[in-house]
Amino acid sequence: MGIRRRPEQVVATTLAALAKGRPSVVDGFLNRLGTLAPRLLPRRATVAVAERVTRPSPAV
Questions:
Q1: Closest Cα to residue 29, out of 37, 38, 21?
Q2: Cβ proximity of 35 and 26 under 8 Å
Q3: Would you put residue 55 in left (φ > 0), alpha (ψ -120 to 50) or beta?
Q4: How far does Cα 52 stand from its chain's mean position?
Q5: What span, in angstroms and rounded, lies between the C-alpha atoms of 18 and 12?
Q6: If DSSP codes are grouped into helix, strand and coil, which group holds residue 4?
Q7: pTM of the complete model
Q8: Each residue's pLDDT tens digit, 13-40
Q9: pLDDT confidence bin for 2, thresholds 50/70/90
């Protein structure tokens, strides 16, 4: 997994975006990539990724 940001960092990003008048903000590179991927990838690939991410992991 990637580097996790502390809550204070996320709040600082959010407040900075609000100060600039942005109604929403996506914090973190992987989160931003996740929001942009459906616009860039073919629908079939997007569905395959979504299925893989949301499928429950097998019992250990």
A1: 37
A2: yes
A3: beta
A4: 15
A5: 10
A6: coil
A7: 0.59
A8: 999 999 999 999 998 888 888 899 899 9
A9: low
